[in-house]
Amino acid sequence: MTELIKKVFELAPHEGDFNTSVPHLSLFRRDTPTTSPMPVIYQPSIYMVLLGSKAAYLGKERYQYDPMHYLVSCVPLPLEGQILQASEQRPYLAARISLETHMINELLMQMPDEPEAPVTAIDIQSNDGTSSRGIYVSKMNTDIQHTLSRLLDCAHSTTKAHVLGQLALKELIYHILNAEHGSLLRAFACQDRQQYHIANVLQFINRHYASSMDIATLASKANMSESSFYHHFKAATNTSPIQYIKMVRLHAAKRKMMFEQHNATSAAFEVGYTSASQFSREYRRLFSVPPAQDARTASKV
User: Fold this and answer.
1) Which of 129, 178, 202, 229 could form an SS bridge with 219, CB 3.0 to 4.6 Å?
2) 174 and 284: one domain?
3) pLDDT given for residue 24 in this prediction
4) Are residues 136 and 31 in the same domain?
């Protein structure tokens, strides 16, 4: 692990977020812990901590990850994240490997005879006895550590990244699929599983959040009855479809104000709200500040 930390220090020399020359691999460095959980949307990714620790909260559920445990978000999930351990001497260092369904499918097609890792209930049991939540924490193992080390080596060289980066990335995902709880990630990528259809709906919502949506339309996209859809949706996300759409819209509005110089009213209508006052109430409830304040802060940057 010491060698891994050294490699990340070289790629992340100061506090901030860092893209690398390896597609799908990014790095994070923070010198101080966060005082309270911050709302954020976790995209489908593998999150690995090299130094420090972090917790992600999905409703009342807590998922803590550190150098001995990695976190996998199988689907886009509105969470609250909190860095628990970080300092200037020992900063929080983490790597994120973003996931796309086709990457997992290509691997699964090449390993049809591989025995799946045993399914273990993590937080919630679905009707067939398997876990359906779209997020889990698993124990780090030496296969994953060694592959991550090679992936970081590739990030130091544009040539290595181009020639070997995808191979190392593929190997890493292979080990994740075959590790503890890897069957859950498989479920969200397999077309014959209910989780796969829920994952597609979640991606649809994140692409078309400004459009008008109702349960009937979303259930139809998942090829489920409304009651079955609601059950499987909540099992994956720990929230209702309506609440999920609301959180996605609020996060999108925040991005528009922070990075696209929208004011609060225009951001509200851009993401699908029809009432500025309702938007303001719900935004403040989620982010603890009124949207106009965030818009003013962004305009001064």
Assistant:
1) 229
2) no
3) 96
4) yes
Going by the DSSP 8-state scheme, the letter that residue 125 receives in this structure is B
In terms of domains, do 132 and 31 share one? yes
Q: Cα(140)–Cα(47) distance, rounded to whole angstroms? A: 11
Q: Which of 195, 235, 197, 242 is nearest to 215 (CA)?
A: 242
Per-residue pLDDT tens digits for 67-102: 999 999 999 999 999 999 999 999 999 999 999 988
**Structural tokens at position 199:** 């994952």
Q: Give the CATH number, domain containing residue 277.
A: 1.10.10.60
Band (pLDDT 50/70/90 cuts) for residue 284 is very high
| Helix H or strand E encompassing 15 | none
> Same domain, yes or no, for 172 and 263?
no
CA distance 263 to 258: 9
Range of the domain at 265: 243-300
**How far apart are the C-alpha atoms of 11 and 215, rounded to whole Å?**
45
pLDDT in tens, 2-13: 888 999 999 999
pTM of this structure = 0.90
